[in-house]
From TrEMBL:
It comes from Meiothermus taiwanensis. Residues 43-86, 103-148, 155-199 form the LysM domain. Residues 232-249 have a biased composition (Basic and acidic residues). Coiled coil: none annotated. This is Murein DD-endopeptidase MepM. Residues 232-268 are annotated as: Disordered. Its EC number is 3.4.24.-. The keyword Cell membrane does not apply. It comes from the Bacteria. InterPro entries: Cell_wall_metabolism_enzyme, Dup_hybrid_motif, LysM, LysM_dom_sf, M23ase_b-sheet_dom. Residues 250-268 have a biased composition (Low complexity). It holds the Pfam family LysM.
Amino acid sequence: MAISELLSSVLATGIFSLPLGLTQPNLPGTEIKVGAPARKGWVIYTVRPGDTLSQIASRYRVDARAIMYSSGLQSAVLRPGQELRIPLVEEINNETRLPPGVRAYIVRNGDTVQSIARRFDLTILGLVSANPGLQSLDRLDVGSTLYIPTGEPGLLLQLKKGETIHDLAQRFGLSVTEVAKANGLDSPTDVRAGDMVLLPRVQARATYQRLLQIQEAERRAREEEARRLAEQRRKQEEARQKQLAEQRRLQAQSRARLQQQTQSQPRLRPANAVVAAAGYRWPISNFTITTYFGRRGVFQRFHTGIDLAAPAGTPVYAARAGQIDTAGWSRYGYGLHVIINHGGAQETLYAHMSRIVVRPGQWVDRGDLIGYVGSTGWSTGPHLHFEVRVGGAARNPLAYLP
């Protein structure tokens, strides 16, 4: 039975019944009358970070359930800044009596139920029986108190107000004599409310089984959470691998297209030995194509011609006969450039030259000298930018050249 359930029962009826897990098999529980909350006053305590109910109860030497009762708590979970009413009772000024075969142990960092049981040569059931208020077999609050039976094992209970040794003996099927002997009492009246009483040979089996069930449920919950996190990581890794694979596929396609373009369009061209059927010839000799017509990248501008790399000063010739339309400096990055009108709405443009030897209005034949290769305007090195325009629109020069 949870502490909140016990308190609810007390609040409703004024009767506190021990859980069946604290009785021997086949013996019914015994109802015990409990008094009203302490009327001698309270300590008002503000919860600090790291505080637990068991630590506070141990510090003020009161039952944690009394703090819950006085403070109107429904659970043992505390939050920083919360105010607690800790009842002041006459008994807290006196030392709580422990049976001669029991010692108090303060839980330290790293302690577990299993490690404490091994340290004091106890079974888990024996340790639970001495501490029937345990809430978990896996979690202990640092600073809380555990009771360790060093002699005869048994069930350790705190004597309630109005309760006697005779009541406990009768409830658990023991004689008053053996209870008194186990607790080192000369007289059954040598105990008072708040003293710890050892009931020899009685074990909290039902409480132990409940804690085992809680432990198993918590283990399954941890395993389920671990599986969920592992599945989440697996899906994230799958998504990452798919993304990487798609990136590699796109990169491979890009390399293949570039290789195919390079192989189908030789970079080195011979001297002007051949004239295309369209009447065009290459404007320079012994060059390397460094940039082709078309889009050069996702974020780069469309390249409206081809770039022919050659040493500065290389002669530039008219690719086709026509009239010089423009010869001079460009405001659009072409530097020194020439535009020839070939008729039929066809033009050619020659850009980035170092020197021009023609003038607007002049007629030239195919192969006539019009200037020399340079790096004027928006240029990163000596080359000729060559364009073919039809109806004012740029076309791929390779479609018109031999």
